């Protein structure tokens, strides 16, 4: 079977087993990049059964030479393993060659985060009132940007102070409490800012929704206005949520549940402890 046909079959399979649209889209893009690379390398369309271990190694090396980060290359290998595993089950090929490769060693770098004081400065520098409210919601709930922008009006229960995340990552639902500060912000937003005719909670009048690219652009513009050297994106709000809760004494298990992580190992990568806090910890003994 041609590689591009197998990729389409794999995408249909992922839909059948209820993988999220984000996952299907990400996997498909990576596999199409792999197909394009092999098509250029061999100067013709490629059949799955003709792909060699060298082909996979060459693709990952090509990605490294392009400056793709180790975490992204590790994810690419994971996707290839998943794809070839599917192909083996469907008798499209006889062996999962991707399983023969060593894992990509991922460099763990310090993730950016901001303090509450820095966040207040950032919020004041964001000019668009709807985007400002979106960023505040991410910071005070730890929600992923994709989860927050997809919120429907019915998902935000201001009466009971609960935000219902529907089909978050892994198609899991979870409830996140709305604190008093965010409750005031969201109430003000509904009464004085929101004008769009849309079922989305966060919506601009022109489009009836907000886009992830526009949110990040507004954040980057605000960071530039403040003259910060930090690389701040929407996802930094999620890291900062976890870190600031930890600083105030919240348990890692509570933070894990609020962030919607399946394991504590993932949660700990979102948390930052300064030298002073670590010194306080050892001095407890």
Automatic annotation (TrEMBL):
SUPFAM superfamilies: DNA breaking-rejoining enzymes
Annotated Gene3D superfamilies: 1.10.150.130, Intergrase catalytic core
InterPro entries: CB, DNA_brk_join_enz, Integrase-like_cat_sf, Integrase_catalytic, Integrase_recombinase_N, Integrase_SAM-like_N, Tyrosine_recombinase_XerCD
Subcellular location: Cytoplasm
Keywords: Cell cycle, Cell division, Chromosome partition, Cytoplasm, DNA integration, DNA recombination, DNA-binding
Any one annotated GO CC term: cytoplasm
GO molecular function annotations of the record: DNA binding
Keyword Transit peptide: no
Pfam families tied to this protein: Phage_int_SAM_1, Phage_integrase
Record domain Tyr recombinase: where: 109-283
One GO BP: DNA recombination
Superkingdom of source: Bacteria
Chief place where the protein resides: cytoplasm
Domain Core-binding (CB) per the UniProt entry, residue ranges: 1-88
Its job: Site-specific tyrosine recombinase, which acts by catalyzing the cutting and rejoining of the recombining DNA molecules.
Family: Belongs to the 'phage' integrase family.
Protein name in UniProt: Site-specific recombinase XerD
Organism for this UniProt entry: Desulfoscipio gibsoniae DSM 7213
Origin organism lineage: Bacteria, Bacillati, Bacillota, Clostridia, Eubacteriales
